[in-house]
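One-letter codes give the sequence; the fold follows as tokens. An example follows:
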Amino acid sequence: MSFFDHKDFDNHEQVCYFSDEASGFKAIVAIHNTQFGASLGGTRFYNYTNDDDALTDVLRLSRGMTYKSAMARLPLGGGKSVIIGDPKSIKNEALLHAFGDALERLNGVYVAAEDSGTSVNDMKIIHQRTEHVTGYHEKQSQEGGSKSGDPSPATAYGCYLGIKAAVKFKHNRDDVKGLRIGIQGLGNVGYRLAELLHNDGAVIIACDLDQNALAKAKRELGAEIVDLDDIYSQELDIFAPCAMGATVNEHTLKIMNATIIAGSANNQLDTATIGQLLHDQGILYAPDYVINAGGIIDVCYEHLGIYDAAKVNLHIEGIYDTLTEMFERSAKENRPTSELADTIARERLNQGIPILA
């Protein structure tokens, strides 16, 4: 099969493979669109089953970044990178330096940030070899102190607001008190999201591979812990996918009870047809690249050198309004929110320069 016939190829501008024999570094960088600026996107470090899975992931993720930035009206393009391998066993300084050298060869058309499997400290090490990386600067918090470059809190905050928007639209209530919310994945974003919802009185049902994270959630949040495969069949009001993608599929939909799907994971829907199934079943879906845009908003301001905590928070809070508008338009036009999100993103790409430019 020709690469250009790949099911997830979407007229990407560039797809580059990199390797370094000495460090064991293998990566793919996909640049989907640079219409509004550099293709800023996270670096996922994951032990893919095979190279084709890695390619599929980076193609889908990079396209999602284009649409995410367009929906958030950011002067950025869309790109993503994946480093292939188990970060717990092969990640080291030499490998991260090799990635930095790869970014340098791309000469700024792609700017990396952290994602699953990478951290703020990793970005600092990569920065030793290139300027084309962000998400590592110390920044001023809204309270006047400093905070790390970690965009996870911003992503979690945006998802929290998105859940509130979905609950308001679906159930006409302004709070989540007493609602049963299933958090799939208690990583940097998932755990922070669980904390925000718990503090508002929600009941947290959680699953994760990390037993320490589960124990912490049970201890600190009173979370109900379930097995990975059992999260879908729980009596939930909201299902929040916060781990890897494609967990909303034909199989899981058959056993799912939630009336809202809203979480931080990228590429939550296994295929495009799942969006129509959700719509037909009356399940309100908050499109992933809309609800999880808090992190890219945060690092965009950092990357542009205009970081102001209050302005960043105000921009993130616009996620609530964007989703509300989308939910209303979906109901009026009788169209799946997933399809509508793509339509609106393309409309915004065709409108010209985004707000921040």
In short: The longest strand covers residues 25-33. The mean pLDDT is 93. The domain at 152-351 is CATH 3.40.50.720 (Rossmann fold). The chain has two domains: 3-63+77-136, 152-351.
